[in-house]
Amino acid sequence: MYRLGAYCFAILLFVAVPRVQAQAPKKVWSGVMAEQSVTKVAPIYPPEAKIAGVQGTVVMHAVIGKTGTIESLDVLSGPDALRSSALDAVRQWTYKPYLLNGNPVAVDTTITIHYSWNRPAPEERIRVSSGVMSGLAKTQKIPEYPEASIAAHEVGAVVLRAVIDRSGKVIQLDRMSGPKILSQAVMDAVWQWTYRPYLINGEPVEVETQITINFSHGE
Known about the structure:
Keywords: Cell inner membrane, Cell membrane, Membrane, Protein transport, Signal, Transmembrane, Transmembrane helix, Transport. This is TonB family protein. Residues 1-22 form the signal peptide. Residues 30-124, 130-219 form the TonB C-terminal domain. Its main location: membrane. This protein is of the alpha+beta class. It has two domains: 22-117, TolA/TonB C-terminal domain (2-Layer Sandwich); 119-219, TonB (TolA/TonB C-terminal domain), CATH 3.30.2420. The chain has helices spanning 2-16, 30-35, 47-51, 80-90, 130-135, 147-151, 180-190; strands at 26-27, 37-39, 56-64, 70-77, 94-95, 98-100, 103-105, 107-115, 126-127, 137-139, 156-164, 170-177, 194-195, 198-200, 203-205, 207-215. The strands form six sheets. A four-stranded mixed β-sheet has the order 1-8-3-4, with helices on one face. Strand 3 and strand 4 (70-77) form a beta hairpin. The termini are far apart. Residues 4-17 have low confidence and may be disordered.
């Protein structure tokens, strides 16, 4: 009886030991991780994509390990012709370890690569006021207010120069003014905006305009 009781006790003790689960990566906004960057390899614009006029944005989901290296990387969206180029480059990126309570932790974030080139302005490109283009907006993703900027009480206006093609797609963005982290948040959102084509004499034309986004504590 003594041996049987000891055996049963050992089994119960074994079952009661809890499993130690790995800590899930902490979700961190892309703008914050951009500030942690150590090395960045620039993507190579695929020649066949440029010849075909393929431009656009590749958005990737990344897990960055405690040491600052990319552990996993998957494409969330973007033109097929540009995806391999973005993945090949970003897999080589490194970051400073992200610290939580003084300890490095793995990070869950997104990385966005924009592909565009500064083409000579076509004769039919015209300047259009921001108010007129706002009236032609189809989809406007609202920029996220970065947690780091909220914590730092960072406010202000971000002003961008935008080129919108004949189909109503944003094909070029340049930062004119505004805080750096807030500007990145705005650009990440505006790259996804779409418009109805701007028409002259019934024909769509390429447009240059300004986009202004204001951040305040009331948002």
